[in-house]
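Anyone else keep sequences and structure tokens together like this?

Example one:
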Amino acid sequence: MNDHAESGPRGAGGLGRRRFLKAAGLAAVGTALAGTEAYAGVRSLAARAAAGTFAVPIEDVRHTRTWMAFPDSTSIWGSKLSGVQADIALIARTIAKYEPVIVCANSGSAAKARSLCGSTVTVISSIPVDDCWMRDTGPVFRTDGAGGLDAVGLNFNGWGNRQTHARDELVAERIAAYVGVPFTYADLVGEGGAIEQDGAGTLMATRSSIVNNNRNPGMTERQIEAAMCAAYGASKVIWFDGVRNQDITDDHVDATSRFLAPGKALVQMPLSTDTDVYAKDARQQYQILSSATTAGGAPMAVSKLQGPDYYKIRSTNKDFLASYANYYVCNGAIISGQFGDTAADTAAKATLARLYPGRVIEQLNIDRLGTGGGGIHCVTQQQPVR
């Protein structure tokens, strides 16, 4: 069973996100938190001088390619593995209609990945992986506006050492080497899905997933904020409280709130009848963003993206992630999920088309991936054009 989840709503009466690994699965992690090699202050390098020049652009800039990963672990996914592999391949093939895609696969599963992904997707076996969550494990690419490109690693530690990650903690550095760009480890532990950037100095994140002793013990919020800004080339963080200890990620931001542009954001809203912790979290994120300002002092314009009715979606899995907001922006298109609540699916497509004029809106049935608590944004990582 895969227990990775992003921020997302709920099933009736349940936690509604990917739950923690079973006790037996935790044993596979092995190392104690204090000794994990990827921990901040152990593998972390001092920020480069270029950190003030380079910045992570917003996702709708032109991409050179998309990076993905092909899972093959039955110890993580169990009987769900083949369905999840098929969903990963569907996402890769769809993105490949708009920009190049490279999928990292282990040598033993590379042939299957090539068969499922088809000829339009490049599969490489030189960068081994533990799982499919490239948003969290991959490098965060930065540009300097003058043709420069580098990459930052966020010291991935298995979402607080909750899942085995010996291969995944090296993915960021290995991809940077493959691309041939300078690479630096950030001075904090985090995941790409935990931090949203507007490309103009403003970040947003939940405290629950970053200001957390399972990632950054002994660091204050101010120290963590400074490290985030140095890594992303930003100067301001909009913080949400988030939700702790209910899913393996401790409530990532990227399936609830996203930046559309500097000074513009969206929040996926729950139904008015939803009262669980994630519904309350989403409403708080909307309220905070609506009164927030950007790094430059401009007010934030916030759009609503209505989430589905969990009683009307196809999946009955209690940990299912039905987040339209967990979409991926690629060259000329938005790749988003659809979940079987026909009215909500149609409305979400119309909202995304309005918010991203001129882009094709692709909606995919990724129900197998969704049972693992993840979505399309979770399994993709963009490499921007220099």
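And example two:
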Amino acid sequence: MASPADHAPFVEQVERLLAVGGPLPIVAAGDPVLRRGTVPYEGQLGPGLLARFVAALRTTMRAAPGVGLAAPQVGVALRIAVVEDPAPVPEEVRMARGRVPVPFRVLVNPSYEPAGPDRAAFFEGCLSVPGWQAVVARHAAVRLRGEDEHGRPLDEVVTGWPARIVQHETDHLDGMLYVDRAEPRSLSSNDAVVERWHQPTPDLAARELGFGLPGRPSGGPQPR
């Protein structure tokens, strides 16, 4: 359990961030805070400051816009993340990706483990790696454990795109970026994804860029 003396640096840091008002600055790849991992949240901010910090994370995520934001992405090394996805996508995308709406929620001290052997690969981006996307193979379902902002326990199985969001944000709390898990040959600018790889699945990108998908070969252009 952290002592009151351990709390002070986090309280001061968050108070400084919130004093500016509006969306918080998002830390970009290359900043060590994104690689150092996080400290478990043990009440360092207190209920009032935590609520204000969560509200600021929500504002920042929506303004970016994004579907998740972890505390290290605003420079705070606490094990806290927020997620929300209205999922405004066509039906064919929803079906292919399992992308369904995720209401706003707070993840405190989250962890995940696979809930089954299946993996799914799709293009993924990150607010801390602006301008780029890459294909990442992730668990199709995970068991999420942790707490909400009120200390109530979380223990549930999450599937589809919501499972991808949970993995992405929890990875941030462990000092990992999506590019660490991505297929290197799939790395594409946002413009290229919009212009070339906007299909519901990354099959065409895999064939043209020469990378494998779960259960399929890699190492060169795939047969058409």
